Amino acid sequence: MVTTPCSSASSRASPSLSPSLLRSSVFRRRLPIVGAICVLSTLSLSNLFPSLSSPFKTTRAHSISSAPLLRSKEQSRGIHATGMEAASSTVPSIVVYVTVPNKEAGKKLAASIVKERLAACVNRVPGIESVYEWKGEIQTDSEELLIIKTRESLLGALTEHVKANHEYEVPEVIAMPITGGNSQYLEWLKNSTRD
């Protein structure tokens, strides 16, 4: 039996529970949820999420300020997490996926993207297998995935660069927003790309 800190504390606090119940996977899986609900009710959801207003607010719940507690814990570990809209030293950023047919094509395209300052960083992930339909037939190909971190404003220029330097007739270029993260990394991303 794997004992978690929550399950071992519960077994000490509740001696009336049978050992078979404590070993059940249902009990162990639900215990962290119960603990989370207790913590959230103690801190008051309205303190964590001010937009959630409730007519049942209590003065005790209002006296606990949970947001500073959470921030100070992150800051004490050296993590400066931020939402993109809250960080004045960053710009709206995206992650772009591009697949390439092989290692050499991936190296060449990744280097040209960074050299042109169209992205701060390109990760090359080898060994993926893509299954897709092309011209009415199901295809399976080994490919390499490029994970590109850049400014949202550079997506058009990046897409044109990929299309001009890619051997596929219709290269994959798909983007997802970065909604937050390490503010120092996001600032570096901004400074490492063209305006």
Automatic annotation (TrEMBL):
Compartment(s) of residence: Plastid, Chloroplast
Keywords linked to the UniProt accession: Chloroplast, Plastid, Transit peptide
Domain of life of the native organism: Eukaryota
Pfam families per the UniProt record, alphabetical: CutA1 (PF03091)
Primary location class: plastid
BP GO terms, sorted: response to metal ion
One GO cellular component term: chloroplast
Gene Ontology molecular-function annotations: copper ion binding
Keyword Plastid tagged: yes
Assigned protein family: Belongs to the CutA family.
Classification via PANTHER family: DIVALENT CATION TOLERANCE CUTA-RELATED, FI09726P
Protein name as annotated: Protein CutA, chloroplastic
Protein source organism: Opuntia streptacantha
